[in-house]
């Protein structure tokens, strides 16, 4: 456990010192700030959470997680990393943990920033109950999108870089947008975050169990494939 925590700390430093992390945060804050003049608090926070259920979640999280894995290949530091006295499984776990924690931190910072901007802009009809509702839904769609990063980290490892996984993220976003109005969307992993938010006015978890199961299987398969690739396939 001590070794794993040490590796997580190292991966955390890599992310903190990267332009990708702070560039992503700057983009999140900018996008939310320019939506502050739209309607009341219900409309404004709804737009913020919807963006995280789609582009900011599917693509933004993919950028961070794919960079955490792909940079080792792009910077040619992978051999040095694998030469360290630790298992490859711990390396994978540390990269996933560090990138996931930062995705969550960026999400919470953006939400707090949105509240600050909204208050400064004097958006009408503020309600603590409404803020809590949207915050809970934001955490749920964030968790779903983090699970959907499983295939992203596998593609980053398989392709030895971050171009392919980022392309994959944009492709899944397009599929989600196209299939969104159809019945098929509830069975497509990438369309489920938006459906979760769309139905949140009726229930905290408005979708059928099969939708959440599909997300869980997709994430688990991606992370398991990543671990297997680092453990057996890579550098043979």
Topology of helices and strands:
Layout: H1 2-16, H2 19-33, H3 41-53, H4 55-74, H5 78-82, H6 88-121, H7 128-147, H8 150-159, H9 163-179, H10 192-198, H11 209-233
Helix pairs in contact: 1-6, 2-4, 2-6, 3-6, 3-7, 4-6, 4-8, 4-9, 6-7, 6-11, 7-10, 8-9, 8-11
3D architecture notes:
The protein is mainly α. It has one domain (2-233). Helices cover 77% and strands 0% of the residues. The chain contains 11 helices and no strands. The radius of gyration is 18 Å and the shape is globular. The model has no long low-confidence stretch (mean pLDDT 88). It holds the Pfam family ABC2_membrane_4. The chain crosses the membrane at residues 20-37, 49-70, 91-119, 131-155, 162-180, 210-230. Keywords: Membrane, Transmembrane, Transmembrane helix.
Distance between the termini: 27 Å
Uncertain stretches? none
Shape: globular
Structural class: mainly alpha
Strand coverage percent: under 5%
* Proportion in helices: over 70%
Number of helices: 11
Number of separate strands? 0
Radius of gyration: 18 Å
Q: How would a textbook summarize the main sheet? A: none
Return the string of H and E elements: HHHHHHHHHHH
- Domain count, please report it: 1
What value does the average pLDDT take?
88
Briefly, what is this?
The chain is an all-alpha fold. Helix content is 77%, strand content 0%.
């Amino acid at each position: 456990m001590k070794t794993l925590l040490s590796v997580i700390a190292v991966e955390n430093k890599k992310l903190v010192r990267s332009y990708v992390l702070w560039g992503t945060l700057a983009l999140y804050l900018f996008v939310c700030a320019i939506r502050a003049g739209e309607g009341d608090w219900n409309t404004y926070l709804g737009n913020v959470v919807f963006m995280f259920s789609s582009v900011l979640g599917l693509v933004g999280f993919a950028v961070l997680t794919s960079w955490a894995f792909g940079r080792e290949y792009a910077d040619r530091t992978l051999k040095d990393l694998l030469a360290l006295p630790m298992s490859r499984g711990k390396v994978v776990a540390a990269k996933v943990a560090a990138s996931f924690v930062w995705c969550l931190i960026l999400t919470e910072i953006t939400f707090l920033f949105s509240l600050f901007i909204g208050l400064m802009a004097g958006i009408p009809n503020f309600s603590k109950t409404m803020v809590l509702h949207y915050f809970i839904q934001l955490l749920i769609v964030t968790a779903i999108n983090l699970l959907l990063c499983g295939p992203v980290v596998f593609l980053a490892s398989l392709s030895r870089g971050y171009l392919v996984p980022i392309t994959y993220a944009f492709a899944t976003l397009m599929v989600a947008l196209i299939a969104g109005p159809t019945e098929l969307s509830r069975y497509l992993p990438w369309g489920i975050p938006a459906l979760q938010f769309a139905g949140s006015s009726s229930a905290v978890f408005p979708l059928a169990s099969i939708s959440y199961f599909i997300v869980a299987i997709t994430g688990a398969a991606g992370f398991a494939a990543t671990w297997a690739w680092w453990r057996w396939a890579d550098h043979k």
